[in-house]
Specification:
By secondary structure, the chain is of the alpha/beta class. The protein contains two helices and eight strands, in the order βαββββαβββ.
Length: 141
Amino acid sequence: MRPQPLIAVTDVEASSRWYQRLLGCRSNHGGAEYEQLVWNSQIVLQLHRFEVEHHHGSIGDRNDKPYGNGVLLWFEVEDFDAVMQRAQDLGVEMVLPKHRNPPDGEGGPNHWECWMRDPDGYVVVVASPYGTAGGTWRPGK
């Protein structure tokens, strides 16, 4: 199985550029109505414009906000620090800045996470691989 999440967005091309810049993925389709973003030749995210119905009808309601209520777009990345730098360069809205999960002690994924919003307001989480945060980090350090 390979997940291939699809989200409805207001501007496919702008969202595509944002995700490509942030995550270092690339376009596999392109266009104003639909996009596939790939990493290592695998689709990691599909973007679809709200108003375009194609053969399947509308994907979502542009007026029903917040988009993705209760959904997190979660990406494990090998280059976590580089993604954090790109997020800063993009001026992204942070929901939860860089933090260790769990914040204290041992166990859990023991990785770094950062929660942010994409141009449409979806919550995007980037995380380092499990076990990469060490056990000595504490908030405020």
